[in-house]
Design a protein that fits this description.
Strands 1, 2, 3, 4, 5 and 6 form a 6-stranded mixed sheet that branches. The chain folds into 2 domains: 83 residues; 185 residues. The two termini are 17 Å apart. It is built from 11 helices and 6 strands. Strand 2 and strand 3 form a beta hairpin. Helix content is 43%, strand content 15%. The protein has 295 residues and is of the alpha/beta class.
Amino acid sequence: MDTTIPWTRWVGLIEPHYYSNTRGRKPKPIETMLRMYLLQVWFSLSDEGVEEAIYDSYAMRRFMRLDFAVEQVPDATTLLHFRHLLEKHRLGEKLFESQNQIFEAEGWIMRGGSIVDATIIAAPSSTKNATGTRDPEMHQTKKGNQWYFGMKAHIGADAGTGYVHSVSATAANVHDLDLIHALIRCDDEVVYADAGYQGAEKRPGVAGEEHRSKVEFRVAARKSRLAAMAEPDRQAESRKAGVRAKVEHPFLIVKRDFEFTKTRYRGIAKNLNHLHVLFASANWLMRARAVALMG
């Protein structure tokens, strides 16, 4: 990730919003704070936890590019203020958009088709906190025979490469179909989705919009219908499933590699900022792995 992230470009996006102290301590360099923040995101650490981890880990210290003979790791409070700055100005979304622009300019994106999907991210259900309440923006939903409390991450991924191009977040009880219009690109001709998106073409945000109403939705058949299908139809369903499988890769990276299986912050907006950085990082990681395989 050190050699993959476009540091200069990302620092440039943050710089107009970064504070400059004319009195007191000189602010930490933006790149230093960005590197620390990304370590926090990638390893699912608290503000205090990432500070301690950098002192304990030689690899993290190298990544931070700090000369410990003359410099100290920024403390947890400094990181907290930096994270709040990113959230206030929705800079996570801007970093994600910048990553998409680079992929587009380099020709790493294949246009014309998208895959849409959503996943549930659990939120703490305990009321043992300062307010004595659960997060009011999170809600319960039932999947299968199990109830979940939390939020949903909705993504649109390029059907050719699997790179994520759109990210949204809602409470867990919001239906996947309610966000489908926000995940389709302006030049998509076909959209792949699982069986939960049946009836996508009839949604108001799709049927009533000039471009989206012309999109071909290749939605998976429900399992109850598969057994009764003729062999050619089952083969077609299998091919659709092969394309849809690409959307699981970024989810896998976010949940397994970056360990984002439970919300760390209260409120949809803060977690959406976090998701934008996570999926931008997942795209860069997938790109780095693809280059390594080609090399």
